[in-house]
Each structure stands twice: as C-alpha cells, then as structure tokens.
Known about the structure:
With about 240 residues, the protein is α/β, with parallel strands linked by helices. It has helices spanning about 5-20, 35-45, 65-70, 125-130, 175-180, 220-225, and strands at about 50-55, 60, 80-85, 90-100, 105-115, 120, 135-140, 145-150, 155-165, 170, 185-190, 200-205, 215-220, 230-235. Helix content is about 25%, strand content about 35%.
Amino acid sequence: MPDNELTQLIAARVLSELQAPAVNASEPDRSPYRSYAEEARACRTTAGMRLIPIGISARHAHVTQEHLAALFGTGHHLGVHAHLYQPGEFAARETVAVVGPRMRAIESVRILGPVRPYTQVEFSRTDCVTLGLDAPIRTSGDLDDAEAVTLVGPHGSIRVRAAICPTRHVHLNPAEASYYGVEDRQDVSVHVGGDRALTLELVRVRVHPKVVAQMHLDTDDANAAGLRGGEGVEITVC
C-alpha cells in the first residue's frame, strides 16, 4: 500500500478516536514531571531565589489560526487548559495526533497558545525515533528544513513541514540579560545541580521584553538530569 494511502488510513482512524466524546479533552500524562500548575508555582519559588527556573517542554505544537480552523473547525478558538509560567502563554485544551514517516501516530500532543504566525511541532529525539523522523535541532520559528508530519484534529487533518527538535534555550527579558551579562542569541553553558548534576552546553539565549527568566529543556535532557520542572539553574559560561 502506498505511503500516502496508509497515512490517510491512520489519519482517519485517529480522527474517529478524536471525535469520540471526551477523548480530546483528556490531559496527556506528564508523569514524572510536575503538572503545568505545579511547575509554574515551583518556577516562581525558584525565581525568588535568584536562580533561573526550568520549564520542561514535553512534546507540543504551535498552530496558526488557519491551521486551527482546519483541525478543529471554522471559527474555533483555543481554550485554556492551564496557564504557563511565561506571561500570556497557556496549555490549550486542544490536542492533536501527529503521524510520521513510519506511519505511527503520537496522540494527545498538546497545543500551546496563543496561536502563532507559524505552525510548529516540537519533539524530543526519542519522539523522533518513534515517528521515524530526523528532525533538525532548531530555534523556534526556524522551519526551513523542518520534517513533514500530518496533524490530525477532530475536524480534519493537515500535512505540514513543521517538526523540529528545539534548541536548548533560556528566555530572559532585557533587564535579566543585563544582570547575567548575556545577549540575544548568544550560546552559554548552564549548570544543573542535584543527584544527576550536569552541565549543558550550547544553550541559546532568547531575549524578549515580554518574558521572564526560564530555561526550557525537552524531556530527553530533563530525564538525563533527573528533573521534574521548576528547579533552578545557573549560567556558568558566557
């Protein structure tokens, strides 16, 4: 059977499951990580200690309004499942299934809001193995060589070149960047303490006036360091 026909069959199966009552409203299991609300509380505590809190970025998607309509229906708007630590950002109630080249699907991939000017799906390398992807490590929004995947929602599906593995990065506002002596898009090293202490290199600094200090790690890096979300780190090399 040709790959495109198999993709359509998988998309149809996933679509029927997503349209079943309450399926799309379920929360993906974040174990062993803290829930969104628990992580936000831990981040606020850590920030008060003058450390940079860690946010664990499990697999998730960002979508345009156009693609949101294709997946969930015309006029659909993202609903708030949980507010995130970053101001104005939230985990949406909506989830999608993502189908990769191996014709396997990862379901319940959470959409993060608000909608963006581009559609992007962020996976760990472990997720990529499951789906058969060779997604590049890229900064958010850099999608020139992103891998093509099929997103399936309760209203329909789309195929889009959107899958990346996110670069390790730390968000800072201009005042925080000045405090740490770093600049936008500079690569730094960050030390993570604890029982599985390690130093992470090539951490990209992202400076924006509407953010607060937070380092984002995918689940592979979080697992390597034994993190649950909300722990504090220090920039060690600039």
